[in-house]
Amino acid sequence: MSAGSKRPRSRTPAGQKVFAQILGFFCCVCLPAFISALAPVSVIQLTRQNEQVVADLSTRLFYFIPYRHVVVEDVREVDDRFHAGELVRDHDRDGGREHRTESESFLVVHGRESTSEVPVSPMNIRGAVEKARSFLKQPDQTNLRITVVANWKFGVVIPLLLSPLTILYMAGISLAVWRLLYRGKRTLSAGAASIP
After folding, report:
1. Which of 4, 17, 19, 58 is most buried, by the most CB atoms less than 10 A from its CB?
2. What secondary structure does DSSP assign to 116-133, as a single string?
3. Which of 46, 64, 63, 43 is closest to 55 using CA atoms?
């Protein structure tokens, strides 16, 4: 073989390519989406219409993709619900170790006919409830938007660290599709040019 000649490229079996794509999709898209769904970011939109307050509650994946949407008509009251973390004992060979589970809190919106709740970080629940109650008491305000996080560690920090994987994966898939379409267009135009 001469120094200037190229070696033939070995082809990767189709099964390995499919497996790599499935693994990449799971690790770069599904895993970050699952983590951001465990401790979601929610948007509470309170709007005053005809002397009544309507609450539009939206729970989001990756900060901006709504996957749960609830509308509560004629909001009468806003309060909270708190579930304190529990002390849990792990039973292993070395004896029992104890750890405390995460505390949870919820902003509860009571309407005339329905009630709905949104997960809010225990650190932010008081502020969210106070803003919503203040809006209900002031009839001159027409609109209030509150963005809340269920858990700062799992709802913001970890997805923020993992979201570049999702962006890179989606960019790679987009480039691969563009390249495939470009090659297909070149093949079609070369085939059309060879027809007399």
Report:
1. 58
2. EEEEE-TTTHHHHHHHHH
3. 46
